[in-house]
Amino acid sequence: MPIVSRGFHGRARDTQRKLPPGQYETTDFPVLSAGPTPTVDLDEWEFTIRTETGARRSWNWAQLTALPSQTSTVDLHCVTKWSKFDTEWQGVSLDVLLEDVETSADYALVHSYGDYSTNVPLEDLLNGQAWIAYRYDGEELAPEHGGPARLLIPHLYLWKSAKWVHSIQLLVEEERGFWENIGYHDYGDPWREQRYQGD
Amino acid sequence: MARTAVSRRLGNRLRWRTARLTDGRVESRAARTLVFEVPGWPGHLAGQHVDVRLTAEDGYSTQRSYSLASASDGESVELTVQRVSDGEVSPYLTDELAMGDVVELRGPVGGWFVWSPEQKEPILLVGGGSGLVPLMAMIRMRRAAGSRTPFRLVYSIRSPEDQLYESELRQDEPGLDKTYVYSRSAPPQCPRPPGRITASDLSSTGWPPDFEPTCYVCGSTGFVEKASGLLVALGHHPGRIRTERFGPSE
């Protein structure tokens, strides 16, 4: 049973939109990163999927942006407690990128330019749930928000949506990423409030 | 006494605990330090944060994350909260929470933006505004541990009235060099004209990159983007620059 803080009333509740437990709504777009924002030159940009057998598929910038893209309006939930409703992204569905990949892996470890990584189950990247996103709100994706391209998995806490995405490594056994290694949850479902290992 | 080890028993660390306000200090025109007694607190590292949960009479509850300001010290935990005038939580914490009142708290959280006295390399702390708070925990941990690791602090604030921990930082402390960067209005004796942080602020008073310092940068997104970008441009390796950004600065 939560303990009541005397005299705390909170804001008027917006009953129209439901927030995951412990989250509050913001209309800003806050930034969270562990280090400096990396500079990635589009001429050298590359995105690679590697399977457990070592097979690789890579796309350069022109190849990625030539693929059919989708525009999606999704809600974002950051483990630092803010949520942002109705954000509009354009990108390539992972269904398209993974379509011809042969694998028996169940897990993915996503790597970024600048050494960030995060782990997700492979099935969470499929079935219209995840994108390599390169436009936000009708504009090129800004570097501090993960540009030129980031992973977008809006049904999980936002640290899973790796900024500056560089590759996805498919794995038979789960390996932990950057935040997961220091105590954040392996799955990170905001609706079940899976913030930290053990939640 | 200060502890450097943190309990690894997650079940214990992630339990919501009742925190009772036992002391408060006004730090600046918009910031207040809250001292809580937290029974069973497992200790923390300098730079970690906590989740704070507030629940209203009608059951509505909301959470925020705040950096720990104090070095680990038994069951006493200090947070410094900056008031955001239209915020839902911070005005309650800075203006309404009274001695004996309770909030819920869990943690410590975060294992990346931390400094521990076992680190021997020189340290550069770059703080903007209330981004000083976790850096102050590192300074206090250094003092509590009797560490002689050389620290340099570059602290950017709008004006002298915004400075946190003024009397504590005014004391001379061997091995801790402090530089103030005023962005809007500087005190009359300050030779540097007011303005945003520059490469020369960081190169003249920070460490040369070949000393391989670990750099901790904390503040608003704009400040952290600027300062960490300057450090990279000066030749500091991105892997030695750790950042913490205050989102909607609540």
TrEMBL record, chain A:
Oxidoreductase molybdopterin-binding domain ranges (all copies): 35-179
Coiled-coil regions, chain positions: none
Pfam families named in the record: Oxidored_molyb
Region of interest: Disordered: 1-37
Protein name: Sulfite oxidase-like oxidoreductase
Protein species of origin: Streptomyces sp. NBC_00119
